[in-house]
Amino acid sequence: MATGDSKLTICSDSLIMLGSAPLSSFSEGTDAAQVCDRLFDDIRDLVLLSYPFSFSLKKQALARSVDTPVNEWDYQYPLPSDLLGSGIKAFFISDSSGARPIRDGWEIYGSDIFTNHTTVFIDYQFRPSEDVWPTYFVQLMKYWMAWHIAEAVTDQTTKAQYFQTLAVGTPSENNRGGFMRTAMNIDGASRVQTKFTDFPITAVRN
């Protein structure tokens, strides 16, 4: 994990990349401070939601609401207060070892899950604080910030275009190129790869 990183240091490094002075605080009264302070939170959420980064995932059992759906479903479960966007990555009805997620039998309405299941467990995406971000994500955020504040800070669209390419690659790469690809590869390398232990088609042939 990176150490000592914060919203202020990440924004300051992005400004340094653009050839500007770093920030002393977000209340220093400069245009750069105001732009960074206003844009950072939205950009952070956008980058987190663009990929299921492992450090932004949680597992949680949901508590059933005393309220019940009007029709169709039997139960409703309030979603976690720290859920990021619609970032539910998996839905389970068991906490047993080896439990597998199910894809149907539930729906999201507003801030609740509606279902007929009496127990609900979910994997979901949340918003971790900057001080626990891994180094690769901190660097990715610096590039994204430089990209989005470049024109406002430097009045140069070429710098914005440069950092956009550095952050996510060319338009044909659908925001999956540049350092974004590097960050996804590093994050993915830390996950256990699923292996097929049984394949029915080849089993029948054999």
Summarize the structure.
With 206 residues, the protein is an alpha+beta fold.
The global form is elongated
Helical segment tally? 6
> Which structural class is indicated by helix and strand composition?
alpha+beta
Order of helices and strands: HHEEEEEEHHHH
Structural Rg: 21 Å
The residue fraction in helices comes out at 25-40%
Mean pLDDT: 91
Distance between the termini: 48 Å
Kindly give the count of domains.
2
Q: Order of strands in the sheet with the most strands?
A: 1-6-3
pLDDT below 50 for ≥5 consecutive residues: which ranges?
A: 194-203
Biggest β-sheet: count, sense, barrel?
A: 3 strands, antiparallel
Q: What's the total count of β strands?
A: 6
Q: β content, as a range?
A: 15-25%
